[in-house]
Amino acid sequence: MAMLVWLALSILNCSMVSTFRKHSFFYEDPRYIMFICMVINDAIQLTLVTALYVVSYAFSKILASACCPLIMTAVTTTRSTPLILAGMALERFISICFPLHYSHICTATRTMWIIALIYLLSFTPPLTDLLITIAKEPPMFFRTSIFCDHSLLFTDLSIYYKNCVFDSVYFSFVFLTLLYTYCKIMLTARAASTDLTSAKKARNTVLLHGVQLLLCLLAFVVPSMQAPLIQLFPMYGLEIRYVNFLLVYIIPRFLSPMIYGFRDEKFRKYWLRCFITKARKVKPVRYFSQKPG
Fold first, then answer.
1. For residue range 7-20, what is the model confidence (pLDDT) as tens digits?
2. CB neighbours of 233 closer than 8 A, spacing ≥ 6?
3. Average pLDDT in the 180-194 region?
4. What is the CA radius of gyration of the chain?
């Protein structure tokens, strides 16, 4: 079931990336650059998490050295999602509240630099986790077999407290950014000189980003509840892990296609055209009956 869900979402993500690549005018729009970055980030995260999920059932334990890059990449993509959401909300804020300065402030080059900064910030916590573990664990630790989980790979208590402080600052910043942009767009939408339709769409988009942020919080809240639940109900350990997998990693991945793939008229037009073109290329096979002689 997990593999089928991963396959369905992968096809959806690949179709959106293909639509973006085939139309060069998307390359110059910061809105779609950040969106496709979100799609690729979600695809990588979902692939890694699904792989870890399947490996945990197939092999139970793997080498810590093999688990480490998988966990670090998965954590980086998980932490980058809220920052990308904040960047997309700021782009909508500038588009509605400062339309005359939008083309000067939001450029493709600056967007790429912001994306690079987002991944640099997102990679910092797992990198420090690794450095602390290398400093405090014996070298043989990475040759032992463990259940591939962040809490079992990075066991030092200082890592837990460090990540708690980082997450508090991190999510507070993203939440305040979304709240500020939403309020400013809502106030701007009431002005008589504003394009009400565009402002309303931008406001709804930022609101959906807030829903995405709440779902991202599940990635940090639900896993901490998983271990106590398994201890209380050991007979339902597999079911608890699977529900955790659905809530934290699967359901939030459906929102990105909905926000831009379905709601955005411009992208939807070319996305559907891509599907129709591929459907027309599939020619039906005709069978002709042969008469003897």
1. 888 888 888 888 88
2. 240
3. 72
4. 23
Which has the closest alpha carbon to 218: 260, 176, 188, 246? 246
H or E segment to which residue 146 belongs? strand 145-146
**What pTM, to 2 d.p., does this model score?**
0.80
Identify the CA nearest to 130 among candidates 82, 226, 79, 64: 64
pLDDT in the model for residue 290: 47
How far apart are the C-alpha atoms of 113 and 261, rounded to whole Å? 24
Report the alpha-carbon distance of residue 189 to residue 193 in Å, rounded. 9
Cα gap 197→285, rounded to integer Å: 47
State the virtual CA torsion across 165, 167, 170, 171 in degrees, nearest 10: -130
pLDDT, average across residues 130-134 = 92
Is residue 33 within 8 A of residue 84, CB to CB? The reply is: no
Task: Quick: pLDDT tens for 86-112.
Answer: 888 888 888 888 888 888 888 989 999
Inter-residue contact 261 to 16 (CB < 8 Å): yes
Cα separation, 60 vs 56, whole angstroms: 4
C-beta of residue 43 within 8 angstroms of C-beta of residue 6: no
Closest to 215 in 3D by CA, of 151, 258, 185 = 258
Taking only the tens place, the pLDDT of each residue in 209-237 is 777 777 777 766 666 676 677 778 777 76
Higher pLDDT, 16 or 239: 16
DSSP code, position 28: G
DSSP per residue over 158-215, as a string?
HHHHHHHHHHHHHHHHHHHHHHHHHHHHHHHHTSTTS-HHHHHHHHHHHHHHHHHHHH
Look up tokens 């509840």; give the residue.
Answer: 225
